[in-house]
Design brief:
3-stranded parallel β-sheet, 33% helix
């Protein structure tokens, strides 16, 4: 790292002082709330990698801190800007998206809310293709897999299948006004005639380009509202499982979370 001119310092304050923009990339999402509090007053734009946080309450707190300090902030999975996923919203063979089924890996860790750890990448794919506006979530869960169904306010239905046993891939099937098509493979381009192209791998390059744009403009490519909804979707899925698989309203989950924070 020294040969590349990378300097290691012993405090966040020193990093902030030597930086024009900041990336918070801890693999433990629980660290991101104290970190954003430490850098918020700097006014320097911040990107936070996944996992964003260990709980929905911390997700809300993070964006509240940014708002209070007028801090430019965004967070997303690298899946958000994988061209084979982002290109499905206006795919010429699909047209307007009417529904979507996404699948991906779903390992968990005890120190993070179940889906926040890794399934967040698949849920991010779902939101990349469907957009925000989910109203209710229902979850079926076994030791081997998850099936989470969201109903959007305009009647669209989107699903995420979380895989813990057997072959694991990251892709989607998209249903539209003009046609039905699989997405591209993670990291590659959109398909044509059901054939998934490869070529240049864009798994991390896509999000890196967007981070660079954001650092220059301070305009987040994904809104705080959509990111909060995405995590509320997953928290609603947690609550659906706890209640035996009944539908859970996202609005109720977020309201209860904010009410709990107001009392602290």
């Amino acid at each position: 790292m020294k040969k590349l001119g990378v300097e290691i310092v012993d405090s966040i304050d020193k990093v902030v002082a030597k930086s024009d923009a900041l990336l918070l990339m801890s693999l433990d999402g629980r660290a991101h709330l104290p970190h954003i509090r430490a850098v918020a007053k700097s006014g320097k734009p911040v990107y936070i990698g996944r996992p964003l946080a260990g709980s929905l309450a911390d997700v809300v707190r993070i964006f509240d801190v940014a708002k209070e300090n007028k801090l430019a902030l965004f967070s997303c999975s690298q899946h958000r800007f994988s061209p084979g996923f982002s290109g499905m919203r206006d795919h010429p063979e699909v047209g307007k998206v009417l529904g979507c089924g996404v699948w991906g890996g779903c390992p968990t860790e005890p120190h993070h809310a179940e889906l926040f750890w890794h399934a967040v990448h698949g849920v991010e794919t779902l939101y990349t293709i469907m957009g925000p506006g989910c109203v209710t979530v229902t979850r079926a869960s076994t030791a081997e897999s998850e099936l989470i169904t969201g109903v959007w306010k305009d009647g669209k239905i989107g699903t995420f299948r979380g895989i813990r046993k057997g072959a694991i891939g990251y892709r989607a099937m998209v249903f539209g006004e003009k046609g039905i098509s699989p997405s591209g493979d993670y990291g590659y381009g959109v398909p044509k005639g059901w054939v998934a192209p490869h070529g240049e791998y864009m798994g991390y390059k896509g999000v890196a380009i967007e981070i660079g744009k954001f650092f220059r403009t301070k305009k987040p490519p994904v809104s705080p509202e959509e990111t909060i909804e995405l995590f509320t979707f997953m928290e609603a899925a947690h609550q659906s499982k706890a209640k035996g698989g009944v539908p859970v309203k996202l609005a109720d989950v977020l309201a209860a979370t904010r009410k709990g924070l107001a009392g602290k």
